[in-house]
């Protein structure tokens, strides 16, 4: 069982930045692949960024160049640095962990979600 606790959400103006953190309570963190999803009101959940167990990262096109995902295996934590935020980034952001070398989106674990609001 993996428990994920997100933090770092909040409200910012367009152009601002936030850093989301996701801490995992698990005995061995490094074999997990991790991801951030987001869900805006009235829209389906969207995969935002992935870091595999080997450290490879990928991003959805709308956040490339603005968001950076990193993991600290010593702290059992994954971070999502979000810069140049736009109003369309407003959503609940969910951390997701899966015991695989890549994200399949099944048989994983979810955090409780953290709200990010970008508004002037």
Descriptive notes:
It contains no helices and eleven strands. The protein is an all-beta fold. Strands 2, 4, 5, 6, 9, 10 and 11 form a seven-stranded mixed sheet that branches. The protein is globular.
Furnish the topology, listing elements before pairings.
Blueprint: E1 3-7, E2 10-12, E3 18-25, E4 33-39, E5 46-51, E6 57-59, E7 67-72, E8 77-82, E9 91-98, E10 109-110, E11 114-118
Parallel strand pairs: 2-11
Antiparallel strand pairs: 1-3, 3-8, 4-5, 4-9, 5-6, 7-8, 9-10, 9-11
Structural class: mainly beta
Average pLDDT = 95
Helix content: under 10%
Which term fits the overall shape? globular
Give me the number of helical elements.
0
Gyration radius over CA? 13 Å
Low-confidence stretches: none
Tell me the β content.
over 45%
What is the H/E order?
Answer: EEEEEEEEEEE
The biggest sheet, with number of strands, parallel, antiparallel or mixed sense and barrel status, is: 7 strands, mixed
Summed up:
By secondary structure, the chain is mainly beta.
What key phrases describe this protein's structure?
120 residues; mainly beta; seven-stranded mixed β-sheet; four-stranded antiparallel β-sheet; 0% helix; globular
């Amino acid at each position: 069982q993996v428990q994920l606790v997100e933090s770092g959400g909040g409200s910012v103006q367009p152009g601002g930045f936030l850093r989301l953190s996701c801490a995992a309570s698990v005995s061995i963190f490094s074999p997990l692949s991790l991801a951030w999803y987001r869900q805006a009101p009235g829209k389906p959940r969207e995969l935002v960024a992935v870091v595999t167990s080997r450290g490879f990262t990928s991003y959805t096109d709308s956040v490339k160049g603005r968001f950076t995902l990193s993991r600290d295996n010593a702290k059992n934590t994954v971070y999502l640095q979000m810069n140049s935020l736009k109003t369309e980034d407003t959503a609940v952001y969910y951390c997701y962990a899966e015991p695989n070398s890549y994200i399949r989106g099944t048989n994983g674990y979810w955090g409780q979600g953290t709200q990010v609001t970008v508004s002037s």
